[in-house]
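Teaching assistant's notes for section 4

Start the section by putting this record on the projector. Ask students to predict, before seeing the second block, whether Leucyl aminopeptidase family protein will look compact or extended. Collect guesses on the board.
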Amino acid sequence: MTFAAASAAALPLHVLRPEELAAFRRGAGKAWAGWLTGFEAGLGEVRLLPGPGGAVAGAVAGYGTAQARRRLRFGLAKAVAALPGGDWRLEGNLSADERREAALGWLLAGYRFDRYRPGRQPAAAPRLVCPEGLDAGRLIAMAEGEVLTRDLINTPAQDMGPGELEVVLNSLARRFGAKVAVTSGEALLARNFPMIHAVGRASPRAPRLLDMSWGERGPKLTLVGKGVCFDTGGLNLKPSSGMSLMKKDMGGAATVMGLAQMIMALDLPLRLRVLIPAVENVIAGNALKPKDILTSRKGLTVEVNDTDAEGRLVLADALAHACEDKPDLLVSMATLTGAARVAVGPDLAPYYCDDAGLAAALEAGAATGFDPVWRMPFHDAYESVIEPGIADLDNAPGYGFAGSITAALFLRRFVDVPRYVHFDIYGHTPSDQPARPKGAVGQGARALLGALPQALGLKA
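Reveal the predicted structure now:
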């Protein structure tokens, strides 16, 4: 993904609010008045403008009302599909933030997942000249990181198992000079990752812990991503409707890999570590059973009351391992609970954080990255809910309420560093949206990227 080079040949895209339309018709658009009949400057509405000989000389795009823009993120990106190939430049009364949203949305609108349609020949896509004053490199890094995340989640489990995740992470590491260590199969038991092993042992595709490190200066940031490459629910088998999207259950891993790519591409001054417990939760004679009690890496015992609550088990061992290195900031990302979707829907990324300053940095990063997040509480009053009595912890309490909160509290039991953030993401867009086609989507990564300077004291 890239921007077009600035040139006189780039066609103008006049971005107009409804209240600016009359002045445009009287001025620069006077010659095109007939072509603008019925054009009301609704968000993403487009009219092509003819030049001599009928060639396209430019276009107008509606910017809609302030309310419309609040309701539809990247709304201007709707215009991209209506434009012919070639180079375009934005014209109009847009603030720096509005230009940034338009430019990032334009890049993201170019995403296609055509791996399984190799014969398809897409039409030439329109390219944008990066608006003046914006950091083109940062926008491209964000878009390319998002593309990696989307591609990983969109790929079906047959081609994206634990081994394939390892291959992708190794490729990413080679590109940026990072190092990867892998603990796989029975070695997980020998090296004390019992819960990762227990969840993944029934699959012929061996479970593993992927560990990538990059950077030699600055504060330590560790990202932990849930890599359940497919989730049948185990012996607590999901119904078919609940299994249909389970190729996306490695969305946490895909998102931290996309964020890691952004960080490394921008060469941020920090020491990055990425931990991905990569497993399949399937059925075989040696599968994890309901009421089994596991002893975790941290030593806490866990009663397995639902084999379909496996993500928190693999994350727990990875989080405990992450804390042994004492990172300055620890982040976990996972497609963890349906309760989070009930609470905030598919568009918001809920997160849990006890640090007010870090939460403020995330809110600011969400605004600048056009990546909405919502803070949820580590509500201590629910701690007793995750204590079954027969073991230290219950992986699936039958409480009936606050499922995302109790899952977050479970994970927090395995964390012993001061600064920790947990994201319970969805990783999927149910219907086509501007710059976000139906299917895989990254959530929280751009918010985190924007938060890092303030959260870790990085020099600008």
